[in-house]
Design brief:
The chain is mainly α and 150 residues long. Helices cover 68% and strands 8% of the residues. A 3-stranded antiparallel β-sheet has the order 1-3-2. Helix 1 crosses helix 5 and helix 3 crosses helix 4.
């Protein structure tokens, strides 16, 4: 059986993800931002949540391994962009929150990242974008179910 990578959604998604990550890295570096795209995504996820998240909830929302997220958080804590605290409900659970400093600094780079998003979406009609997002959500749901069965 011949595998055609050009017709594989996974390969196409991987190529676009690589270009987005590379673009983010360039934008963040030119702005003097001290964090990687992955660390920045951690900050954005915490900002979007609007409340502290447990380490496991944060990792789940980002679809990342908790150990990887913990390493990213170490740098973010050192720079005082996030803080760790114990859960008021269960002392074994570590809660992660964006600090005021982290939120303020994040707001300075979000417009730059939004410009990159606009560049990536240039010439794509809203209907195509919505259809693509729906397909990607369905693929994510299917794969999450599949992986959890293994």
């Amino acid at each position: 059986m011949h595998f055609d990578s050009e017709s594989s959604p996974g390969f196409a998604i991987g190529r676009v993800a690589y270009l987005i990550r590379s673009g983010m890295a360039a934008v963040l570096k030119s702005a003097g931002w001290p964090f990687s795209p992955e660390e920045t995504q951690t900050l954005i996820t915490l900002s979007d949540a609007g409340e502290p998240l447990s380490m496991n909830d944060l990792a789940s929302r980002m679809i990342r391994d908790p150990t990887t997220v913990k390493r990213q958080l170490d740098r973010l804590v050192d720079k005082k962009f996030v803080e760790r605290s114990g859960s008021s409900e269960d002392a074994r659970i570590v809660m992660i929150a964006l600090t005021r400093r982290g939120e303020q600094k994040l707001q300075t780079v979000l417009p730059l990242l939004d410009d990159l998003r606009k560049t990536a979406l240039k010439g794509i009609p809203k209907s195509e974008l919505e259809a693509t997002q729906n397909v990607l959500r369905k693929m994510q749901k299917n794969l999450t179910k599949h992986i959890s069965k293994e």
